[in-house]
Amino acid sequence: MKNHVQLFFILITAAAAILLFVYKSPLNVFFSTDEGNKFIQVQNLVRTNEVSLSYPAADLDPGFRFFPFAGNHFIAVNGSVYSYHPFYFPWLVVPFYRLLGITGLYVLPILFTLISLFLFFHLVSSDQPFRWLAPILLLFGTPLFFYTVGFWEHSIALAFILAGFLLIKKSTPNARSAIFHFLAGLVLGMATILREEGYILIIALVIAHFISYRSFKNVFSLLVGWVLMMCPIWLLQKQLYRHALGIHELYYSPAILKHSFKGVLSNLYVYLYEFHSNELKKFLLAFPFLFALAVGLIGGKWEKKRLILFTLCLGAAGAVYAVITLWQAPLPVYHVLFTQSFFPGLPFSIIALVWLRDFFYEDAESRFYCITIFLFLIGLTVNLNQERFGLLWGPRLYLPVIPLLILLTLRAAPRLMHLNGAITKACIIILILASFLIQMFGLQALQLKKKSSANVVQLLQTDPDSVMITDAFWVIEDSASIFFQKKMLMVESDNDLQNLLMALREKHAPSFIFVAAKWPRLISNDAARKLMQMSVQRRIVHTPGYDSGDVVVFSCRL
C-alpha cells in the first residue's frame, strides 16, 4: 500500500509540474527545428492526408526550385517532397490536433511520460531503498521533462522501451519466459519505429542478454518479436524512400563510416564527456567522470574506500562547478550546443561508475544492465555525426538506457553510504541536486527560446504580405505554425535571389517580406543592400539568450 501511495503522489506531482510548464509556455513555437518540422508534417497530414508535403508557393514556383528544403530537412524523393524526419509520430498526433488544435500536440508526450514513470517505478525492485526516487530522478534529473513539454516522440518510445525491460525482468525466472521475451521484442520494435536509436538498443540487448543469462531461446524470441514488428515498416519505407531503413539512411553519414579512428575517438569524447565550449573547462568537467570510470574498473570495494570517497567528493565538486558554469552562461540558449554529452549532463552517473566492476559480480540483472548501457553508449556514439550538431538539449539520444543507469545508481548508493558514511551521503545528495539544477537550466533556455520564436512568428503572421523569402534554413521550421498561411520560399545565393525576384515579377506578385538572420547568411552584403533599397519597412526582432537568432524583416515592393 505504501508503494502505491508513493506512486500516486509522484504521478500527480509530475502531471501538475508538466501541465503548469506547458500552460506558461507559448504552444505554437518550439525549441528546435526538428519539432517545427514535425508540426509542419502534422498540418500537412490534416490538410491532405498525404505523407508527401504540399507546397503553398507552388503557384509561384511550380518547379519547386525555391522550395524551403531548409538544408536537408525536407528531401525530394521519387518526385515528391518528404520530411527528413519519419512521419509516424506526426501521424499519431493528427487526431489530437484535429480535436484540440495546438494543445493536441502535447497530449501524447505528456501521457506517455506519465506511463513511463509508472512503468519505471515497477521496474525497480519493491525492496529497493529509495524506490520512490527512481521516477523523480528520471523526470527531473534527466532530459525527459524537457522533451515532454516539447513536441517530441522521446517519451512515447521510452514508454515502449520500459515496457520491454519490464517484460524481460518479470519473465526471466518464468516458465513461459519465451512468450514474454517475444512480447518484449514487439514493444521494442514499436520504440524503434519512433526512434531509430532502437536499432542500436536491440543489438545491445541481445548481446547483453546472452552474456548475462545464457538463454538462446529467450534471445531468439526477443529478436523474432522485434523483426515481426519491423518488417511492415521496412517494406513501407522501401516503397516510399527507396531504402528499407528509411530516409535517414539515405542522407545520414555516421562518423564510423565518414571519419578515421581518430574521428571516432573524438565522437566518444564529445558525446560522452564534453560539457563546455572552453577547452580547459571541458577537461575540468569531464575529468571526474573519467576518473570515476577508472576507479570503478579497479574493483575491490573494501580496499578502495578512501579512493571511492575521494572520487565522490571530486564528482560533487565537478557537479557544482558544472551548475555554476551553466547558470553564468551569458547566452543560455546558445550554450546548449555544448551541453549534450552523457556523463556531465547526468552528474548522478558517478555514483554508478565507482561501483561498476562490482556490479558484474553481484547478480545477472546488474550485469545485464551494465553491458546494455556500455554497448548502447559505444554503438550509438560511434554512429553519430558531429556535423549534425544542432540546437538541442542534453543527452536525449541516450534516453533509452538512462533508466538502467538510474537503477544502477540507486543500487550503488546504499552500499556507498554503508562504506563511507556522512560525507558520502552529502556527496550523493549534491550529485542528485546538481542533476536537477542542470535540467532547470535547460528549461530556462527552453522558455527563452520559445518566447523569442513567438515574437518572430507573431510579427510574420500579422504581416499582410503572403510571400515570404529567407536565406536562413531555421526560419522555415521556427515558423511552422504559419507554414501553410504564407508562401515560403528559400534562396541559397545571390543568383537564387535574383532569379526568384524575376519569377515573382512574372507572376505579378506585388510585394514580399524577406527574413534575414544573423546566422546563417547565404546572400552577400551587396544583395542585402539591394533588398534594403527595395524595402519600405524594416523591423528587427532580438532573441535573448541566442543572439544568432536575431532577425531583420524587410517589407519589399516589386
Describe the fold and architecture.
The protein is α/β, with parallel strands linked by helices and 558 residues long. The chain contains 25 helices and 7 strands. The chain has helices at 2-23, 33-48, 88-100, 107-123, 133-140, 144-148, 154-171, 177-194, 197-213, 216-241, 247-251, 255-258, 261-272, 279-298, 305-327, 332-335, 342-345, 349-353, 356-362, 364-381, 402-420, 422-462, 473-478, 494-506, 525-534; strands spanning 74-77, 80-83, 467-470, 487-490, 511-517, 535-541, 551-557. The strands form 2 sheets. A 5-stranded mixed beta sheet has the order 4-3-5-7-6. It has a two-stranded antiparallel sheet with strand order 1-2. β3 (467-470), α23 and β4 (487-490) form a beta-alpha-beta unit.
Please outline what is shown here.
This protein is of the alpha/beta class. The chain has 25 helices and seven strands.
Helices and strands, with pairings:
Elements: H1 2-23, H2 33-48, E1 74-77, E2 80-83, H3 88-100, H4 107-123, H5 133-140, H6 144-148, H7 154-171, H8 177-194, H9 197-213, H10 216-241, H11 247-251, H12 255-258, H13 261-272, H14 279-298, H15 305-327, H16 332-335, H17 342-345, H18 349-353, H19 356-362, H20 364-381, H21 402-420, H22 422-462, E3 467-470, H23 473-478, E4 487-490, H24 494-506, E5 511-517, H25 525-534, E6 535-541, E7 551-557
Parallel strand pairs: 3-4, 3-5
Antiparallel strand pairs: 1-2, 5-7, 6-7
Key phrases:
alpha/beta; single chain; 63% helix
Number of helices: 25
Q: State mean pLDDT (0 to 100 scale).
A: 93
Shape: globular
How are the strands of the biggest sheet laid out side by side? 4-3-5-7-6
Extended strand count: 7
Distance between the termini: 73 Å
Helix content: 55-70%
Radius of gyration: 25 Å
**What is the oligomeric state here?**
single chain
For the sheet with most strands, the description reads:
5 strands, mixed
List low-pLDDT spans: none
Q: Helices and strands: which structural class? A: alpha/beta
Strand-residue proportion: 5-15%
